[in-house]
Design goal:
The protein is about 45% helix and about 20% strand. By secondary structure, it is an alpha/beta fold. It has a ten-stranded mixed beta sheet, sandwiched between helices. Helix 4 links the parallel strand 4 and strand 5.
Length: about 300
């Protein structure tokens, strides 16, 4: 199991490494710790100043990586230290396809605010070509509470398989959650739907679609449950209606989960460009770690 752990010595990066060390318990894990220093700004004199900067940067990178080693349990782990000078986001993204999992903290040094993603994490989440774990400090000391978003997509089911492959979930409490997008929103009925009687809803086009979506959601949840049964976790199922990102975030906060798992289709149509994907919204606003698995190429 090859895992890339990006670090810049920030509090968030250190917490991300500690979280990954606890979550990823495969017997053959290889951790590559990567630290990237940005290039010297072009406004500085070139050549001599650039060489001096690179020597100083490499010394600092070495110190950061050696400090990060203290957050990793060495037993059963192969560890490599990787140093680079360049664009941190571009360097991480270019390596993601070579690893089973890439781990980043939500923010780096010098990034203000308590929520959201920093510029590097945001670009990695958007452009990575492999599985990404935006790792935040775990909420529970013992056991894990995992919320798995089930949407019926290929990346969604691949995310469930990846969860079982990279983490020991035998003792985890897992909630499988499917959110059916409310049909009245798509049909422009949101303002009137609350005034419909149950009989009107039952015989309306939106009502028929809603019942079909609920049936489909129940089937998808059962398929997801069967994928996880071999790992013998504690499994519950939840079926909600509404906006997927909002419902997932609400349940994550309400249920005190340590990890959210979901797939990303990588859609780039106008709707996603304007509104943002579910995975991006969840990664940005989640109160816990988020595992995002993209559609296999």
């Amino acid at each position: 199991m090859k895992v890339l752990l990006a670090t810049d010595s920030s509090t968030e990066a250190t917490a991300a490494i500690e979280t990954a060390d606890r979550l990823i318990r495969t017997p053959d894990r290889q951790f590559d710790l990567l630290c990237v220093a940005p290039r010297l700004s072009k406004k500085h004199p070139a050549h001599a100043r650039e060489n001096e900067y690179e020597r100083r940067a490499l010394r600092e990178i070495t110190q950061i990586l050696e400090k990060s080693l203290r957050s990793v349990t060495p037993k059963g782990t192969t560890i490599r230290l990787l140093k680079e000078i360049g664009s941190p986001a571009a360097s991480i993204v270019s390596r993601t396809s070579d690893y089973d999992l890439t781990v980043i903290g939500p923010k780096g040094r010098g990034t203000a605010g308590e929520v959201g993603l920093g510029p590097v994490a945001s670009r990695v989440v958007e452009h990575a070509r492999g599985a990404i774990l935006v790792a935040r400090k775990l909420r529970s000391e013992e056991g894990l509470r995992i919320l798995v978003a089930v949407d019926g997509s290929i990346p969604g089911f691949h995310a469930i398989e990846t969860l079982g492959e990279v983490m020991d979930i035998s003792a985890a409490d897992i909630c499988l959650m499917h959110v059916a997008e409310t049909p009245w929103t798509e049909l422009g009925l949101e303002a009137d739907w609350v005034t419909y009687s149950e009989e009107d809803k039952e015989h309306s086009e939106a009502g028929v679609i809603e019942h079909e979506m609920v049936r489909e959601g129940e089937q998808l949840l059962e398929q997801a449950r069967e994928l996880l049964l071999p790992f013998r976790p504690s499994i519950t199922k939840r079926l909600d209606e509404g906006d997927p990102a909002n419902e997932i975030l609400s349940e994550a906060e309400r249920g005190g989960y340590d990890l959210i798992v979901l797939g990303a289709t990588g859609a780039r149509d106008l709707k996603h460009q304007m509104l943002g994907s579910v995975s991006a919204k969840v990664a940005w606003n989640a109160p816990c770690s988020v595992l995002i698995v993209r559609e296999p190429e």
